[in-house]
Amino acid sequence: MEFLPFLLGSVICGFFAVRAARLLHAALWLAGISVLIALMMYQLGAWEIAIIELSVGAGLVTVLFVFAIAVIGDEPISGRSLTPKLLAAALVAAAVLLLSFFLFPVEANSAVSVQSSFAATLWQDRVLDALLQVMLIFAGVLGVMGLLDEPKVRAAEESGLHAETPAPFDQPAPDSHLEEERV
Amino acid sequence: MTGTILVIGVLALIGVGLYGMMILHNVLKLVVALQILTKAAALALVAAGYMNGQLQLGQSLALTVIVADTMVAVVGLALAVQVRRHFGTLDTRALSTLKR
User: Fold this and answer.
1) Of B35, B71, B81, the CB nearest to A139
2) Nearest CA-CA distance, residue B94 and chain A, Å
3) Between 20 and 30 A from A10 (CA), which of A51, A164, A166, B77?
4) Domain containing B38 — which CATH number?
5) Residues B20-44: pLDDT tens digits?
6) Total tally of structural domains belonging to chain B
7) Domain region containing B80
8) Three-class secondary structure of residue A152 per DSSP
């Protein structure tokens, strides 16, 4: 039960991340959730994934968020949301109640205890997951490169760099026959 | 008892994330709400492994969720940057080009 303060703290951080008026504050509350969830995972004995969650969730993703906010600015957006808050709360309550109906009562099945290392489980039993992760990383990198390269092409087109199309290689240049006559 | 408390915490995180996805209309804050949802999913997998005596399996599944979650965040942030450049705002209500 040592993880109870971390669990409560992560829910409170989530609430403040959603309610935060500024984007930077929302990103910092999200980092707080990652830290508390990593601590909770450590308390449960999942040390490897706790370290990964701490470094990726609280480190990499937070840095990316802060970078994105620095690029696009912290723009306050006000006004009513498309979904009324009362309707949203009712829908969320219905979803949580439905999940609770399927999950409770929680029965721990401690009879099944296959103790192998995390590396053995990942690289032998779940090798397809590891391959999927590699593919996901490549897909993400390619997607980001595609998304962020577009303005360069458009800016080049607007500045007229592509206005003069080069002559094809199989056709002679316009002035080449004049040079031959001079010779 | 431990499992029950863990499940209640996961459900609370899922509720907060879902509520944020519904009421927020800032692209970056939508990514934040999505991150809360996926962190709840990763925690649920670790908790399930803990309760069933298969913690390593839960960890390996949670690792997949974390990788997918990070890639979704990266692509979402890149999309937010592009949305800001093209539309001049991050408001999702201004993104629709259809007639109302």
Assistant:
1) B71
2) 11
3) B77
4) 1.10.287.3510
5) 999 988 899 999 999 999 999 999 9
6) 1
7) 2-94
8) helix
